[in-house]
Structures are given as C-alpha cells and as structure tokens.
Automatic annotation (TrEMBL):
It comes from the Bacteria. This is Phosphotransferase. InterPro entries: Aminoglycoside_PTrfase, CcrZ_PhaseVar_Mediator, Kinase-like_dom_sf, Prot_kinase_dom. Signal peptide: none annotated. Gene3D superfamilies: 3.90.1200.10. Residues 10-271 form the Protein kinase domain. It comes from Lentibacillus salinarum.
Length: 271
C-alpha cells in the first residue's frame, strides 16, 4: 500500500477496496475519492476516453516498475440481474463492439483475434489432458456439438469483446450513467460471445428478437447457432478452470449447466 500512498500523497487516506487480488484501494481527501489500482491494462485509457469506464484521473509509474492508476470514484451500484434486459445495456454493448478505437488499441497492445478453431483445439487438448473427456459424457457430447457447429462460426466479424458480462460488472451511478468495468478478460472475437451470454442468462427468450433489434441486428438460425457455440465453449472452459483448482463442487455445478445447454442444442438446434 506504500506505493499507493506515494502515488497520491500523504494527505490522502487509503483503504482497501476489496476484491481477490488486493491490488485495488480507495483514496479519500476532503470528501473527494479516487479508485486506485495497480498494474491496470493500458487499455484503461481508451476505455475512459470512450466513456465506458469511469474517468481516468492519472497514471503513475513507480520506482519498482509498477503502474498505479487513479479513476474518478462515482457513487452508484451494481446492476440488478433483471436490469440486464434494459435497452441501455444493448446500447452500451453496441458502442463497445462498434468502436474502432477500442479495437485498434487492443491490437496495439498485442492482442490478436481468437478464432473458434483455435479455441476448439485448445479446449479439446486441455479437456483431454485433465481427463475430463474420459470421465464425463456431457463433455464428450458438448465437443461433438461444437464440432458440428464450428463451420457457422468461421469468417465472422471480429470486435472487442468484454467476455465477462455478469451483471456485477455493470455499474449504474446515482446520476444515471452506465459503466462496464473489469476488462481483464477482453479479447478480439465474434460479438456473439458477448450478447449470447446476456440473452441466455438474463433475457427471456420471448424478448430476444426485440433486444437484438435494439442492439442493431436481426436474429436468424445462424446467429442462434453461433450464440450456443460460444455458450457451450464458455461452459467447458469454466469446467477446466474449476477442475484445475480441484473445486469438485463447482465442476459439478458447471457440468449441470453444460447438460442443459447440450439438451437445448440437441433438441432445438440440431434436431
């Protein structure tokens, strides 16, 4: 924490902001507050300029090589799950996906588009190495569906995707501003990865066409297939993540999600 104190000055009171890494703090002085974080991505600057995250106040490189960023602290709350259906969320997501500035910055930082073929091959290798293909029929079935749907995922638009659109990562301020935080998992990929997650987990299926229309696209069978390809892939990668951490309970929970996705794809898409 000494580095944070040095970054803002001794007159600021600094307290932990919580979180898993311990790299985030709140600095307060005379009623003013800043959100401090260590070694945030340089991507934060363009996100701030685009109005997608709270305003970046300063960036300082410390003597040990760490970089401390300070953002404006805004009063507000996390979005509720039911509020993810709102058209403002669709507007925010479209703004991100349409931004050439975000795309160019992420590419300058060394990010390259992640193709579905690469993801499929990498996931298959890891699932095999971890023994998950051998142990779980639902994993075998999921890989079969991914292979069958793989052709429809090729040659699609490549945009900046947030890849973690949990409602807890969207902040609504007391002034009515909407911000999307926690960009650690961002990648260049098919936008169906993002809006498919929102539709599946937050929007009633009867409202999907209206939500997508507001986002700016029309639903069709191929879009549907791409969405479910990414939903199954995400479920498999969560299973890998929990398996490697020996969290058996979470693995079983994710396997249950995967069974539900498999059942839907088998009956509604590949019937």
């Amino acid at each position: 924490m000494n580095w944070f104190q040095q970054a803002v000055g001794k007159e600021w009171n600094i307290t932990p902001a919580g979180g898993l890494t311990g790299d985030a703090y709140i600095a307060e002085k005379n009623g003013q507050r800043l959100f401090l974080k260590r070694n945030s991505s340089p991507f934060l600057a363009v996100l701030s300029a685009e109005g997608i995250v709270p305003k970046l106040v300063f960036t300082k490189r410390m003597e040990n090589g760490d970089v401390v960023t300070a953002q404006e602290w805004l009063e507000g709350r996390e979005l509720k799950a039911a509020e993810m259906q709102h058209h403002r969320v669709a507007d925010l997501l479209r703004k991100i996906h349409d931004s050439s500035e975000l795309l160019h910055m992420l590419m300058r930082l060394g990010k390259k588009p992640v193709t579905p073929d690469d993801r499929f091959e990498a996931a298959t290798d890891q699932l095999r190495a971890d023994g998950l293909i051998r142990e779980h029929q639902e994993v075998q079935e999921a890989l079969k569906y991914l292979q069958r749907l793989l052709p429809v995922t090729r040659g699609r638009p490549q945009v900046v995707c947030h890849c973690d659109l949990n409602h807890n990562n969207i902040i609504l301020t007391t002034k009515g501003q909407l911000y999307l935080i926690d960009w650690d998992n961002a990648m260049i990929a098919d936008p169906a990865m993002d809006f498919g997650f929102i539709l599946k987990w937050y929007v009633p299926e009867a409202d999907w066409d209206e939500w997508l229309d507001h986002y700016g696209i029309t639903n069709d069978q191929q879009l549907f297939e791409r969405m479910y390809w990414y939903l199954i892939m995400d479920a498999l990668q969560y299973i890998i993540w929990h398996q490697q951490r020996h969290d058996t309970e979470k693995v079983q929970s994710r396997l249950a999600d995967l069974r539900n996705l498999n059942d839907y794809v088998g009956h509604a898409i590949l019937r």
